[in-house]
Amino acid sequence: MLKKIILGCAALAFATAALAQEGKPRMYINNFTFAEGVTESNGTAVYQAVVAGLNSTQRFEVATEGMESALSQEIARRSSEAAMHDDKTRNEVLMAAGCQYVLSGNVIKCDIETTVLDDGSKLYNCILSYSVTVAEVATSTTVASEKFDSNNGILTGSVSSASSPEQAIANEVGRIEKNMERFVVNNFPVEGILVASDYEVKKDKLVSCYINLGSDQGVKVGDLFVVKGPKVVLGNVTYNEIGRVKVDEIVAGSISQCKVLAGPKEIYMAIENYLALDEASQQSQPIKVQAMVRESVGNVLGKIGL
After folding, report:
1. What are phi and psi of 287, to 5 degrees?
2. Between the chain's N and C termini, which has fewer beta carbons within 10 Å?
3. Using an 8 Å Cβ cutoff, are 256 and 219 in contact?
4. What pTM does this model have?
5. Using CA atoms, how far apart are residues 127 and 118, in angstroms rounded to an integer?
6. What number of CA atoms fall less than 13 Å from residue 61's CA on the CB side?
7. What Å distances lie between residue 35 and 5, 42, 117, 275, CA to CA?
8. Do residues 105 and 132 make contact, with C-beta atoms less than 8 angstroms apart?
9. Residue 135 CB: number of other CB atoms within 10 A?
C-alpha cells in the first residue's frame, strides 16, 4: 500500500519557511605560505586545489585575491595591498565586506620519493604535507585547523605511484578536493530538519522525504545526510541516528527531496511520532538531519591503513 501526503512546492516552501537555514557564509582565502624547499609552482598547485575543493563543496561564498568575483571586487575596493598584509586592518576590511571567515594555509612539504624496480624502471611518489586554519573574522578566533599528510610511502605500486614526478604530484594534489570536503563537513556541518508534512511510504517503510536544505546551503544532488530522531529523557531531548538519506533533487533554495538509504522503518516511525505531538512539542523535538562525507575507495583504504 502506497501512502503519500501531497503538498505543492509553494505550500511546502511556506510550511518550511520558519525552518529555513541562512544562506552561504563568506570566506576569504589568504595566499598560502610555503616552507623552505617547496617550490612556488608546487605550493601554488596545492593552494589552487584547496580553493577549488572549497568551491566544490558549495558551502561558502569563496573569495581570493585573484578571483573575479563580486566579493573579491568588493574587498579590493575597500582595501590596499598593504592593508591586507596587516592582520587587524585586513579583518576590518573583510568584516566590512561581510566575510565571516578567513582561511590561511601553509604548504609544509612537497617531495618526490623514487623507487627503482628490478627491471630498472622508476616509480615516483609525492610526499605532501600541508595545513589549513580557519578563523572567525569578527573575533580572530580559530574555529578549525587541520594538517593533511600523504601516505608517506605506505601505499605503493599502481595504487599511488606514478611514472613521472609531475604525475606523482598531480595525483596527490588531486586528493585535496576530497580532503576539503571532509574538512568542511567535519568542521562546518550542514544541519537541518526533515520536513514531516510531505513524504512517501510503502509497506510501513519510508521511501522518500524532504529536508529544509537546498542550494542556498550548498546542498547538491547525491549529498548524504544522517537522520537523527529525538528522544525525551527526564525532560531533556537527546538525539540518535535512526537512518540515512541521499539527495535526489534540489527542489528550491531551502528544500531538497531525498531517497531513504537506511532506516526506512525507523524514520517513518519517527515521523508518525512527530505528527502526534502538539505544536510546541514539535518545535522542540524536530527530526534532524546532518551532512556526512561521501566515502570513496581511497578514503576507506586510508581508514584501515592499507
Report:
1. -85, 120
2. N
3. yes
4. 0.75
5. 23
6. 18
7. 59, 11, 31, 57
8. yes
9. 19
